[in-house]
């Protein structure tokens, strides 16, 4: 008989907001059924929880689920953890005992981890929610097969941005699983992001200087650059040899967006760089809705070479400057789903329409209404660290640098990005959510293209040489 999985909840920094946390847990259990336990990582007590905590400590209030707390992560809260071996702090609230929760300001903990699968690695103290692709760790199980570990950073309880601070998951004891299931790897698993393996550390093997990490890097490589800046001659400034031009990737068949393809509607092209070009969007949300497209055949941002990424970023920066001068902020999004050639949609939104926070809230609200998990990812992260080539995803970047990401697993509304921006909350043109309803004549498209070229010319970095 199959073992029934344990249903667990993990929580980020509580910071003394016990009522908010436990009321939320009650609501979840009422809707989704009972969970077996709640694991709290990060700062449980906060700076001044005494009044609220006293009600739980004395039994006036009770946690609705068996709750486990990791322990102190700063000197201020040590007083609440009297027994280093663990103890009951209040009814249904238990301190697990001393755990190393000081890791560069983050509380790191493997899921109740040893002997359970899948493995989870939770982090708190950074006040954000982020989930990376699962990665292989160094625990060898059978014939060089490895565990897949999921890294999840949780936000703080009751945060005003409504970032996710509770995570529901299920696990099964490994001793009750058959061998095939035990070594099964998720389809999107990556290699271990940590540079120093446990084996190397244990035997004292010296790690070469080039792999030195910044002190607080867990799953982002903050030091690695996306390719060096090139000089105007197209040469690497640190290389004595000319950089050989790379032939752009070719499509397997006809493509509407490869610049050399006869299918491209070239009257919509408004600017051409070395690796990318700009084109007016067909059936755009506005007259200056444009696309950033690679000249060669790339399916998504994740697959771009370093030099193409560099020019994409240059176009994004230039377009932000251009639209800002016209009283607009721009939203950039990509849908890598049921598409064959990368199209970065750049939609200007008049500043008078709404604030950036309104745009962000509109995306999050409409995602929730359609059961789409839209995650906020740290500004210093790179999408290549989140999605692998070939993975389906939706990604949006705001003018502040804030980024939202959804990993598409099954179906996804093709017009989602347009629907949000066309909604009453943003551009208030809901009738334009489908590009097919917004098409104009070729003559009108040519007129708009000429107008955009003229307006954009003072900002055109391709003319700098």
UniProtKB/TrEMBL annotation:
Disordered, as annotated region: 187-206, 226-251
Domain of life assignment: Eukaryota
Classification via SUPFAM superfamilies: HIT-like, Metallo-dependent phosphatases
CDD domains, sorted: MPP_CWF19_N
Signal peptide, first to last residue: none
UniProt-recorded Gene Ontology molecular function terms: RNA lariat debranching enzyme activator activity
Protein family: Belongs to the CWF19 family.
Protein's UniProt name: CWF19-like protein 1
Species of the source: Macaca nemestrina
């Amino acid at each position: 008989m199959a073992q029934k999985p344990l249903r667990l909840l993990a929580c980020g920094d509580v910071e003394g907001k016990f009522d908010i946390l436990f009321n939320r847990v009650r609501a979840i259990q009422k809707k989704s059924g009972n969970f077996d336990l709640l694991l709290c990582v990060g700062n449980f007590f906060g700076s001044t929880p005494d009044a609220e905590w006293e009600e739980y400590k004395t039994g006036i209030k009770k946690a609705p689920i068996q709750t486990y707390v990791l322990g102190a992560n700063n000197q201020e809260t040590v007083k609440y953890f009297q027994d280093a071996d663990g103890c009951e702090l209040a009814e249904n609230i238990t301190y697990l005992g001393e755990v190393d929760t000081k890791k560069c300001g983050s509380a790191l903990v493997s899921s109740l981890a040893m002997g359970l699968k899948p493995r989870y690695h939770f982090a708190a103290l950074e006040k954000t929610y982020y989930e990376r692709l699962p990665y292989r760790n160094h625990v060898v199980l059978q014939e060089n097969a490895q565990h897949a570990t999921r890294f999840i950073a949780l936000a703080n309880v009751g945060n005003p941005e409504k970032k996710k601070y509770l995570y529901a998951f299920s696990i099964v004891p490994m001793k009750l699983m058959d061998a095939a299931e035990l070594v099964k790897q998720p389809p999107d698993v990556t290699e271990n992001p940590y540079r120093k393996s446990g084996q190397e550390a244990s035997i004292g093997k010296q790690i070469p200087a080039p792999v030195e990490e910044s002190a607080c890097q867990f799953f982002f490589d903050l030091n690695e650059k996306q390719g060096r800046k090139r000089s105007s001659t197209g040469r690497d400034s640190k290389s004595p040899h000319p950089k050989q031009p790379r032939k752009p990737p070719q499509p397997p068949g006809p493509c509407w967006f490869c610049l050399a393809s006869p299918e491209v509607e070239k009257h919509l092209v408004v600017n051409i760089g070395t690796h990318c070009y700009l084109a007016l969007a067909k059936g755009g949300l506005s007259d200056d809705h444009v696309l950033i497209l690679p000249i060669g055949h790339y399916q998504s941002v994740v697959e771009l070479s370093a030099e193409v990424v560099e020019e994409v970023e240059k176009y994004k920066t230039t377009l932000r400057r251009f639209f800002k001068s016209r009283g607009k902020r721009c939203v950039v999004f990509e849908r890598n789903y049921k598409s064959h050639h990368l199209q970065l949609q750049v939609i200007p939104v008049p500043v008078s329409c709404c604030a950036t926070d309104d745009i962000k809230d509109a995306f999050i609200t409409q995602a929730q209404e359609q059961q789409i998990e839209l995650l906020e990812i740290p500004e210093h992260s790179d999408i290549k660290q989140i999605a692998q080539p070939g993975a389906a995803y939706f990604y949006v970047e705001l003018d502040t640098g804030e980024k939202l990401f959804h990993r598409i697993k099954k179906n996804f509304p093709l017009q989602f990005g347009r629907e949000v921006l066309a909604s009453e909350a943003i551009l208030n043109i809901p009738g334009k959510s489908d590009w097919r309803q917004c098409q104009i004549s070729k003559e009108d498209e040519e007129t708009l293209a000429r107008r955009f070229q003229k307006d954009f010319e003072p900002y055109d970095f391709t003319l700098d040489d």
